[in-house]
Amino acid sequence: MAKKILKKASSPKKTFSLSEPNRSEMKKWEIESAMSTLQRAVEIQKNSKLMADVKKMAAEKVKELNNIAAGKMK
Question: How far is CA 72 from the centre of its chain?
């Protein structure tokens, strides 16, 4: 029985670089996204019911993380 020898196909190294217009567009998108995030944060902070729920959940997460740090597992 003849053995088949399979050669692993070599893939050429691909390099990726952004052109200056693409960098500019990505920076613009990043700024717009950050602005949107900050606007949403203000809306959340103004919503007292939602903030109360957020604080409650944050306290629960802190408790869970403290249990993990102390080596206590559920």
Answer: 28
Question: What percent of the chain is helix, strand and coil (3-state, nearest 5)?
Answer: 65, 0, 35
Cβ contact 49:42 at 8 Å:
no
Residue the block writes with tokens 């602005």? 35
Kindly report, residue by residue over 15-55, the tens digit of the pLDDT: 777 677 788 899 999 999 999 999 999 999 999 999 999 99
Q: Are 74 and 67 in contact (CB under 8 A)?
A: yes
Cα separation, 67 vs 73, whole angstroms: 7
Q: Quote the tokens at residue 48.
A: 């007292």
Residues 6+ apart with CB under 8 A from 67: 73, 74
Upper half-sphere CA count for residue 29 (Cβ side, 13 Å): 6
